[in-house]
Amino acid sequence: xxxxxxWKMYKSARETREFLAAFERPEAVDVVIxxxxxxxxxxxxxxxxxxxxxxxxxxxxxxxxxxxxxMLVELGVQGAIVGHSERRQYFGETDExxxxxxxxxxxxxLGVIACVGETEQEREAGExxxxxxxxxxxxxxxxxxxxxxxxxxxIGTGRTATPDxxxxxxxxxxxxxxxxxxxxxxxxxxxxxxxxxxPGVDGALVGGASLDVDSFTAICLAGxxx
Length: 226
Ligand code: PGA
Prior knowledge:
Structural class: alpha/beta
Low-confidence stretches: none
Mean pLDDT: 96
Order of helices and strands: EHEHEHEHHEHHEHEHEH
Oligomer: single chain
Bound molecules: 2-phosphoglycolic acid
């Protein structure tokens, strides 16, 4: 069971240090924290497993604002999220750039959490499986790869996929690619246990509810086998 915290553009280095000093990982779950770039060093010093929120495919070059695999490795970062829907929506990320980032990270020895998921419009048009097939289809086969199923309509909205919907999507993704699949989208302490107990749900990628140490700890505990 893997519980990942996606902090997005929240938490300075100081706030990161304070959070991680207060956080105790429940033993039975794997935890990954994904802070902003400027907090990575502090986060690594905590001894927790740390992923970045993105990574570039080139080893170096004229790519203003980007960060390479080697830069992350040198800091002791263990992986990166790629293809988050906010990157796709606001920063022009595509299936192709997501695949290139994933490939470079995995080749360079980083773990990858690759995000996939349909928009509300796509779901209503009956296109969920076609979208997932396209998004998953470009990802490299690698044992360092984890997929996060994050229906876009459930991210930061307070609307969570029903356990049934999540289970169906996870089963479909696993039929395409045999990898661990995390669920993401408004995971909270009060819905985590039910979502995490569904077959095919191997963990969670948590945004808003990961920013508070008590709520994130409660979600981690919900994923721990009783
Ligand atoms: P949320 O975000 O938990 O705030 O919905 C999840 C994510 O974007 O990874």
